[in-house]
Amino acid sequence: MVSSKQVPLSEAYWFQEGPGVRNWQFTTSGVKLLNVGNITKDGSIDLDKTDKHISLDEAEGKYSHFLVDEGDLVIASSGISFDEDGMLRTRGAFIEKKHLPLCLNTSTIRFKAIDGVSDLNFFKFWLDSFEFRDQVSRLVTGSAQQNFGPSHLKAINISLPPLTEQKRIASLLARADRLRSLRRTGRALGESLLQSVFLEMFGEPRTNPKNWKVEKVDKHIKSIRYGTGSPPDYQEKGISFIRATNVKQGTIKAEGLVYISEEDAEKISKCKVNAGDLIIVRSGVNSGDCALIPPEYDGAYAAYDLIVEVPFPTNHFLNTAINSQFGKEIIATLSRRAGQPHVNSEQIESIELPFPPLALQEEFAGVVARVEGLRGRMSEAERQGEGLFESLLAEAFA
User: Fold this and answer.
1) How far is CA 60 from CA 30, 63, 105, in A?
2) What is the rounded CA–CA span in Å between residue 387 and residue 379?
3) CA 228, CA 271: separation in Å to the nearest integer?
4) pTM score over 0.70
5) Using CA atoms, how far apart are residues 179 and 58, in angstroms rounded to an integer?
6) Whole-angstrom Cα distance, residue 101 to residue 15?
7) pLDDT tens digits for 86-126?
8) Which residues pair with 226 in a beta bridge?
9) N or C, which end of the chain is more exposed by having fewer CB within 10 Å?
């Protein structure tokens, strides 16, 4: 095994925090300012997320030493959050030529490797290691938002193997990272496929090019009721209890799923859901998100959401329609009427949609079944990719 030497981070890497540019200095053109929001969770730079600039004169004068270079690694040092393991995780990305010219701003820090000592790719992966996250979690300041800066980084140590070993580890982790990124992309494509098929078969609901009969939703559902607003105590095992956070992109996600006891389930029997029912989130930022209850959650119970019983195959059509761009716009309009994002059963029943013939809806339901099978395999592949990366990460920085 190659040995590592623990050294202060400041002896292994050069780093610099961005200046505190004031609001009155912002311009709409000139040199773009790098903000925390420009550093995405997937490790890339998205400069379209903000439009703050400083003048060319200031960038080349007062702030010239804050202009980033191609190949710099930049990270967010503010607004970072705790993961489920109780430790902080920041976001980092490399600067590319297409991003320049670009100037650091407050709460962003850039890093450079020291020639002959360190490798910047190694460092990017090290930011996800236990060694870094444990140290920074104990050093950060702030209650509502966690923040750290150069003074905290100077108090952090890094276990640094020889440079050749750093490069080998970085190369190995980069391959695993590309694999999991490809699997994420595959799942995202699978999630957009149904919307494309929906538009191809039924046309855009807003313009109704196929001239289907426009009717209110209440003519096509059996019943609509509310989940419980007073959830029982959660258990480590038991009966699945579906909350709003589990309703995403037209499906029920297992992440964050909780359970309740049989005794508590009997007290909220009206909240029981069956395979094929629709769950519609009633309130919050994801108000209106809709998902079909899959067979594996038949007999589960629902929290503070709308439970809609819809006959097959209309349940598949309605689920995709509500999750379409057209459906989201309708829900957004309904939600605003309540003063805050919130929908009720009467509003859902009043939605008007062009309903195609049942035979065509049934054909679409068959497509849904095939796509769901594909998405399931992609999700499992993504889970395996994440597991492989985390395992390699833990081994590399043990």
Assistant:
1) 10, 6, 15
2) 12
3) 6
4) no
5) 42
6) 19
7) 788 888 999 999 999 999 998 999 999 999 999 999 999 99
8) 306
9) N
